[in-house]
Amino acid sequence: MAKTSRKHPATLTVDTLWQLARLGAPSLSPDGAQAVASVTTHDMAENKARSQLWLLSTLGGQPRALTQCGEKDGQPRFSPDGQWIGFVAQREQQGQKDATPQFYVIPPDGGEARRVGEVATGIEAFRWFPDGKRIAFISWVWPELKGAKAQAKAFKAFKERKESGYVTSEMAYRFWDHHLPQGRVPHLHVMDLASGKVSDLFEGSAHELSRFEPDASTFDIAPDGRHIVFAFDPGQPKSIDGRNALVELDLRKSKFRECVRDDGWDCSAPRYSPDGQRIAFRASHQGLKHTMPCQLAVLDRRSAAWQVVSAEWDHEVHAPLQWTPDGQAVLFTAEQKGRSHLWRFDVADRQAEVVVAGGTVSAFDQAAGTLVSLCDTAEHPARLHAHRPGEADRRIESFNDALLAPLDLGRTEEVWFTGALGEPVQMWLHYPPDFDPKKKHPVLHTIHGGPHTGPGDGWHYRWCWKLFAAQGHVVVNVNYHGSSGFGHAFLDSITQRWGELELQDVEAATDWLLKKPWVDKKRVFASGGSYGGYMVAWMNGHVAPGRYAAYVCHAGCYDWTAMFADDAFSWHAKELGAWYWEDPAKVASQSPHAFAGAFATPTLVIHGALDYRVPDQQGLAYYNTLKQRGVDARLLWFPDENHWVLKPRNSRLWYEEFFAWLQRHDPAQRADKPGRKARGHNAKRGS
Ligand SMILES: CSCC[C@H](NC=O)C(=O)N[C@@H](Cc1ccccc1)C(=O)O
């Protein structure tokens, strides 16, 4: 038979990954006919991101770009009458650039966006009042000052000050990648849209919202427009792990009332029922144990009684919550075994049912019987679907289809094996596009962070499994003991013995793989970020050299004592079982640095200087130790990145260094052989 030359389909590259449009949370028009969402695109040459608002028909019409000139148009929400879309942006208008994010409105049927009012201290997040004439919004203000003018004056003075020092007596002063504004706290405000007039609802009171990235799920406005409920930590002084009560503000009487307060419980994400009589919220029994999940709770406003309704359902409820229009049930997303579904929880029956199955459903909205969901899977980045009763689900955009259509992404498989404690453990295998079970393939563990996360059937931009697979590796993501989405006992099983069960699981996965005829035993690699970085540093001290050809440690926790410099320091003792000054041996026994004497496996260490969750000294100490011990190591350090590498050019460098490191330590294709390049990567940079 004559041989036919078959053209290989293209595979995913870093540049293609960065060309993909990233969709934000949708908001539906009141009639459910249209959704609005922000769409972020990136320019590799300019090293920049840009977010525009798009209008998407749920009935089959063509998508339309709603905003053009904004750089970061975000958080769009339809007004209750559907006449406007409100959004938050920092724009240039009439030659003047907003100094802080402001509130804009645009009519959905066309026309230019216009800023409403001006808030010197900026707008973090907002919600429409039911009358559509006002919004409630979050802004960080000086609590001792009165009136918008005083805030504006103080803000100007602060911006113009010559000193750069940050002074604080607070326990919470940084969060992930930013310092909390000095002296300012997040207050709820009301803006009258006709006049642009703003009033601070918390002025003169000790109330404030969460200092940790407060968003629109931290408060809600009652259907009568008269009450606002919000989560508030009454503790003084504020701690980094304080427990929130729920407080209701009567706008007419300017009176605050604690409606849920139990010091053992942490409450969040309150949401009024459609008739305004009940408030659904998330409640976590922190008094019992710090790992307790956020459960669904309901407050009856008349009787003031509240109860957890999802106590028998071993899942963590994610914010935001939305009531169904009949007030029977609450919608939310929750993880389950490496997937995240949209659930409907019937409050009377206490039953949960999947409404939209993931993949990973990350956002949704509902109106007039229509539901929209934002969902990604291992096979594609986030897509928007409309779900209407009696109709087939409909894709309402196709932003990335043309880019992805010609690509062979390879196959993804969910596998269960026996891990630590003889228990079933899940892993996800992403096979390379050219996978052939008759050939030998290298293996790459990508160990997730947390430890209490549980990724699986989803798309990841920073740890893009399909991109790693395109380099020829079988990519492995083990949902080790401690991962979320597998019930509380599984999540809590690693408490006070970090490293132990997780390592057994990763090792059992490696054993499982090594039995496969298609695994190249000399080409097994392990990588991980944050807690996953902790894991690879831990492995370096605990696994016999030679089993893994090389490691990549991104933003890894290395030394639990020095980690006290992070922004979550009070959490360690709960997980490790001791403060370092009380039982240093117990802390050290769970810390990779204490096993440095065994480090022998080559490691690429990556860290960002703006990482306050895992400060970069962690990565530097690990790298220095490897160097001092004569272990082959390389450092990739970013002065301008945080826990994540977010800039297009830096991300490309991250992937390039990552691939090159694996190649350099790959016995089959050493990078020091001339002419070797990462697969599928454009040799030429730039546009
Ligand atoms: C309560 S804050 C720390 C926990 C958080 N994990 C969620 O499951 C987290 O930020 N984890 C980091 C690693 C880390 C662990 C302990 C203390 C600081 C950082 C991560 O893996 O992203």
From TrEMBL:
Gene3D superfamilies noted in UniProt: alpha/beta hydrolase, TolB, C-terminal domain
Pinpoint the Peptidase S9 prolyl oligopeptidase catalytic domain residues: 459-665
Which InterPro entries does the record match to this protein? 6-blade_b-propeller_TolB-like, AB_hydrolase_fold, Pept_S9_AS, Peptidase_S9_cat, WD40
Q: Name one GO molecular function term.
A: serine-type endopeptidase activity
Q: Report whether Ubl conjugation shows up as a keyword of the record.
A: no
Q: What are the BP-aspect GO terms?
A: proteolysis
Which SUPFAM superfamilies does this chain map to?
alpha/beta-Hydrolases (SSF53474), DPP6 N-terminal domain-like (SSF82171)
Q: Which keywords annotate this record?
A: Acetylation, Hydrolase, Protease, Serine protease, Signal
Q: Which Pfam families match?
A: PD40, Peptidase_S9
Q: What does this protein do?
A: This enzyme catalyzes the hydrolysis of the N-terminal peptide bond of an N-acetylated peptide to generate an N-acetylated amino acid and a peptide with a free N-terminus. It preferentially cleaves off Ac-Ala, Ac-Met and Ac-Ser. Also, involved in the degradation of oxidized and glycated proteins.
- Sequence similarity: Belongs to the peptidase S9C family.
Official protein name in the record: Acyl-peptide hydrolase
